[in-house]
Write a structure and sequence with these properties.
The protein is mainly alpha-helical. Helices cover 33% and strands 7% of the residues. It has nine helices and two strands, in the order ααβααβααααα. The termini are far apart.
C-alpha cells in the first residue's frame, strides 16, 4: 500500500514500475480514502504502541493506493525491495532507501508474511470488489432509453420559380441581348419606285419595263 505521502509526492508510477520491472504481476489496484475503522483493523498489531493514534490519523488523512502483487516469493522479495521500516537504515536501491528519510513518512507498507498478506487482502477485499464486477458490467449492454416524442416533420416549400416577366437571372443581370452582326430587328420595307440604271428596263429607252420586285433584306 502506497501511503498518503507517496501519493502526494507522485511516486505511484515509480513504485509500480519497480515491481513490474522485477517481474511481478499487478492483480488489483485502487486509490481510496481509508475509513478509520479499516485503518485501526489494519494496524491492530500496533495498537499498544504510543504512535498508534498518530499512525491511524495519518493513514486516514489522504487517499492511499492499495495494491495486490502476484509472483514467486512475492512477500519476501517485496519486503527486500521496500527496505527497512526506518528509511535511514534502508540500503540504497530500495524504495525507502531512495525516496524517503523519515520513519513517520516511509511512503509504503508491505506485508511481512504470507499470513499477514492474506489478512490484509481480506480487510481490503471491499476495495477490490469492483474488479469482479467489471466483466459483468462490460458484457451487460446499457439500458435503452425511449427517445422523447418529436413534432411531425414538415416538408420545406419548393423554391419560388421566376416569372416570365422577370426573365432568367442571367438576362436580368446582363440586360437584354444585343442583336448579332448582319441581322436586323425587322424586315426592310420594299421600295416604292426606282429601277435599275441603264440597260433594259430603264425609262426612256423605249423598251418594255421589267416587273417590279420588292427588295428584301439579307437575313
Amino acid at each position: 500500500m502506497i501511503k498518503p505521502d507517496g501519493v502526494q509526492r507522485g511516486l505511484v508510477g515509480a513504485i509500480i514500475g519497480r515491481f513490474q520491472a522485477r517481474g511481478y504481476t499487478l492483480k488489483a489496484l485502487k486509490m481510496v480514502a481509508v475509513p478509520r475503522a479499516q485503518a485501526e483493523a489494519h494496524y491492530a498489531d500496533l495498537k499498544a504502541k504510543p504512535f498508534f493514534g498518530d499512525l491511524v490519523e495519518y493513514i486516514c488523512s489522504a487517499p492511499v493506493v492499495a495494491m495486490v502483487w502476484e509472483g514467486k516469493d512475492a512477500v519476501k522479495q517485496g519486503r527486500a525491495m521496500i527496505g527497512a521500516t526506518n528509511p535511514l537504515a534502508s540500503a540504497p536501491g530500495t524504495i525507502r532507501g531512495d525516496y524517503c528519510i523519515d520513519v513517520g513518512r516511509n511512503i509504503i507498507h508491505g506485508s511481512d508474511s504470507v499470513e499477514a498478506a492474506k489478512h490484509e487482502i481480506g480487510l481490503c477485499a471491499f476495495l477490490f470488489l469492483f474488479l469482479a464486477c467489471l466483466p459483468a458490467c462490460a458484457a451487460r449492454p446499457p439500458p435503452l432509453r425511449r427517445p422523447p416524442s418529436l413534432p411531425a416533420c414538415r416538408s420545406d416549400p419548393p423554391p419560388p420559380t421566376p416569372s416570365k416577366s422577370q426573365g432568367s437571372p442571367r438576362a436580368s443581370a446582363s440586360g437584354p441581348p444585343s442583336p448579332s452582326r448582319g441581322s436586323t430587328s425587322k424586315r426592310l420595307a420594299p421600295r416604292s419606285s426606282g429601277r435599275r440604271r441603264g440597260g433594259r428596263g430603264t425609262s426612256g429607252g423605249g423598251g418594255q419595263t421589267r416587273s417590279r420586285r420588292p427588295l428584301r433584306a439579307l437575313l
